[in-house]
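tool_call: predict_structure(chain=1)
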Amino acid sequence: MRRLRVLLPALLLLVVIAGCSVDTSSGVTGPTAAPGAFPGNAAHPTPNTTSFQGCPPGGDGGDHALNTLKNRTDDGNNGVFQDVSFDTLVNLSYPQDIGRTQRANWSQSDVEAVDKYEGIAVRTTGYILDVKHEGTESTNCHSTDYRDYHVWLAANASDPKSKSMVVEVTPRERDERPGWTSSALSGLKGEQVRISGWLLLDQEHPEQLGQTRATLWEIHPIIHIEVNQGGSWQSIDN
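tool_result:
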């Protein structure tokens, strides 16, 4: 019994070590992460802010802080995107009390919960269920000529929209990519794609949960779109 008391602390230490992973490249030590999960040191670069067709980054109303994030055009974290599985993205947690609440009125705990993931440059794969050219919004200064495309991304081509994640093409990004024509975007329906862009929580659509989306998390804006063609990813830019 005395020997057991002596060995017990050492045995417990071994159990703790076995349940942790050590990433020597990043210096991060923690519980073993599921495949495709975020690393502890994922970057959150400050978004660039530019005007477009006379529209400032904050838009012309609504939630200016949210609009500024939607209107960024920087190309990832110095061109690098974190590979994250679709299942990981669609199951990310977020505060349940922020629906339709402007960010200026969020509690500090809500801000911290969202900041944990928002603003990470991510890349994921899935199937396009549908594409829709949306109406006028404060984000785009209610322009009739420059409007977002909502794209519904899911793990499987046969999934309903209720299991999808909304990813968005913005007018600012389309302006930089001549290949992103209306017909090219509409033609993505049913395709397996790889989407790269900025992770963002859009708190303005809680009524859509369980109907036309599974989460308030979005990839918004999309920076790169690639289509699986014979096992090779081909950019629609070309």
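agent: The first strand starts at residue 20 and ends at 23. Proceeding to next step.
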